[in-house]
């Protein structure tokens, strides 16, 4: 299992266990309260101040930071979409930042993400 398949799985499992903070406001609160295990930010985030703030918070609180390919992909992984009858994501809302507060259960994907060097 590589990081590209493990990261979406970890985010989905975290959401299922109510351990996910989505968006800048929720992410900043989780990081500052020392509840964050992992921060994921979208590569296509076009707000330099947003990226700078998230990086600074992660550095100050020793939170591991990873990159997602796009805000749409991150939004889909975080559950910010509707699922149609065929199981495909529709009306996906982009999300620039997600913080994992609780991994849920320990599984192989969590270990892959924790071992990954950014």
From TrEMBL:
GO molecular function, one term: structural constituent of ribosome
Gene source species: Gossypium lobatum
Cellular component terms (Gene Ontology): ribonucleoprotein complex; ribosome
Spans through the membrane: none
Gene3D superfamilies, alphabetized: 3.30.1330.30
Name of the protein this chain belongs to: 40S ribosomal protein S12
Record-stated family: Belongs to the eukaryotic ribosomal protein eS12 family.
InterPro entries: Ribosomal_eL30-like_sf, Ribosomal_eL8/eL30/eS12/Gad45, Ribosomal_eS12
């Amino acid at each position: 299992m590589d990081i590209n398949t493990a990261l979406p799985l970890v985010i989905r499992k975290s959401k299922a266990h109510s351990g996910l903070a989505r968006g800048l406001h929720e992410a900043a609160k989780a990081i500052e309260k020392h509840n964050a295990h992992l921060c994921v930010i979208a590569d296509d985030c076009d707000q330099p101040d947003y990226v700078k703030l998230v990086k600074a918070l992660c550095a100050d609180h020793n939170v591991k930071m990873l990159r997602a390919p796009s805000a749409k992909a991150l939004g889909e992984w975080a559950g910010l979409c509707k699922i149609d009858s065929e199981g495909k994501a529709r009306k996906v809302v982009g999300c620039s930042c997600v913080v994992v507060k609780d991994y849920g259960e320990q599984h192989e994907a969590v270990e892959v993400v924790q071992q990954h060097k950014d």
